[in-house]
Amino acid sequence: MVATWEGDVRKIACVVGVLVFGVAFVNAQDRFSLLADGQLATSAASRMFGSEWQSAVLPDDYRMKGTITFFAGGVPRSPRFEVEVVRIGKVRFERIIRQDAGVVREGTDGVHLWHSFEPVQGGVFEAEAQGASLSFVQSFTGHAVDQFVFDLAHGTRFLIDASREDDGKRVVETADPVHGRARYYLDEAATVVGMEFDSVAQTSAVGGGPISAVDKFVFADHQMVNGRLTPFRIERFVNGKKIEEMHFDSVSYNVGLAEDVVRPPLRRDLVR
After folding, report:
1. pTM, two decimal places
2. What is the second-level CATH architecture of the domain 38-266?
């Protein structure tokens, strides 16, 4: 009886192994067929990085400067504030919003996440980035569009589906073991004009559980900057409702920023 049971276990293990291998093989086949489908990867890469996309590398850093307007109920609810977006490497990122009452910072150094406020009267109020602040940081790091196109072109991003269309745009859904799934929208020219992912918008007042939301970014007014196609207008929607819009006046790549430029506000004095 024991021998039979052990034999059954071995048979089950073999079946499971075959199934797992089969699923992995199918996923791999799907992945490569998606990459080859209409040369989507090549088109997106050449559109973003130019004809020399095969030798293109992601920038060491970049800085974007412009203005931001916040929305409520579909209408602007604030004047335009100065905004600056900085990224160093793949993981160091910060957005700085200079409001009348003080400076708001949202960022990460790859270890810490922060959402801080520096009043004009002085001082710093800092907390861990959560909800909308956290998802914004993720949109420029783990879900960054340039990283997506780079990975797509080099076959290093796992694709779930690239066959669906929405309002004339190709929808490419990807998966990342750290940041989860994201959906990118490409127009007929293979320009990434939108990106969305599921995020945790807030914590429920009932039971304290997370409340998920769909964070969507729409990219427009693209211009070539140092050989890279760059959006100069970014709109943001949460669950279909517009909450902010950024317009950039200048974008600079490979500025030569020191890593200490992006650091939690309360830790900056420790490295000076």
Report:
1. 0.81
2. Clam (2.50)
